[in-house]
Amino acid sequence: MKPIKTASHGELRSTDSDKLGGQFTWREKLKMGGSGTSKILYRSGIPYFDELSKIAEDELAYANFELFRNGLVVRFNRVTKLRVAGCTMEEIERITLVAFRVRISRRASFGPQYIIGLFKPTFRIVHRGEISLYLVGSDQPMIFDVLVGNFKAIKQFFERPPFYSKFHYSVSPNQPELDFSHYLTTFGVMIE
C-alpha cells in the first residue's frame, strides 16, 4: 500500500483518485449499497500507519476500506490523526477473512419466569473476524480485526464483484470463544 496525501478534510487529491480509477458517482454508490466499510481495527502491516501507532499506543487504531473503480483505499484514524494508503486491484493478491465464533448468552429480561428465577438462558453464536490483505510480491500481510457488530457488513463488502477471485472466507475450527466480559451479552440486541 502506498501512502496517499489528502486535503485537510480527508479527500483524496484528483491525481491520486485518478490513479485508482476514480471514485464512484453518488448514484453508483447508492446502487451498490455504498463504497466503504464500517470501522475495523488496524493491527499491523502498513509502515505508514505504524508510525502513528508508536505515538499513541494506548489508543485504538480504527480503519475502514473504501472501494474505488480500480483500487482500494484504507483510511486510518488514531487520536484525531488521519492517514490514507491505497493500491490498485492488480496489486492485491488475495484477501482472507477468518471468522472466529463467539458464544453469547441471551435471556429474557421480563415475564414471570424471570421474576421467580426460573429462566433458562439460551445461547447464540456470533462472529468476529481477522482480515489479512496480501499484495503481489509481498509475504507480509496487512492485518485488521473485525468487530462482532460489523462482521456481516465487512463480509458482504468483500463478496462484491471486484473481489470475487481474490477473496477467501473461512471459519476457524477452534471452539467458540466465550463472552467473559458479558459486553456482547448485554448489548446482544444490536449484534447482527
Helix-strand category? alpha+beta
Please tally the β strands and state the result.
10
- Mean pLDDT rating: 83
Bulk shape: globular
Helix segment tally: 6
% residues in beta strands: 35-45%
Largest sheet: 10 strands, mixed
Give the N-terminus to C-terminus distance in angstroms. 31 Å
Counted up, domains total 1
Order of helices and strands: EHHEHEEEEHEEHEEH
Low-confidence stretches: 186-192
| Range of helix content | 10-25%
User: Gyration radius, to the nearest Å?
Assistant: 19 Å
Describe this structure in words.
With 192 residues, this protein is of the alpha+beta class. The protein has one domain. The protein contains six helices and ten strands. Strands 1, 2, 3, 4, 5, 6, 7, 8, 9 and 10 form a ten-stranded mixed β-sheet that branches. The longest helix is centred in the first third of the chain and has 9 residues. The radius of gyration is 19 Å and the shape is globular. The chain starts with a strand and ends in a 6-residue tail after the last helix.
Chart the SSEs and their pairings:
Layout: E1 2-4, H1 14-19, H2 26-31, E2 40-44, H3 47-55, E3 62-68, E4 71-78, E5 81-88, E6 92-106, H4 112-115, E7 122-135, E8 142-146, H5 151-158, E9 167-171, E10 177-178, H6 183-186
Parallel strand pairs: 6-9, 6-10
Antiparallel strand pairs: 1-5, 2-3, 2-8, 3-4, 4-5, 6-7, 7-8
Short description:
The chain is of the alpha+beta class.
Question: Key terms for this structure?
Answer:
192 residues; alpha+beta; ten-stranded mixed sheet; 6 helices; 10 strands; globular; disordered C terminus
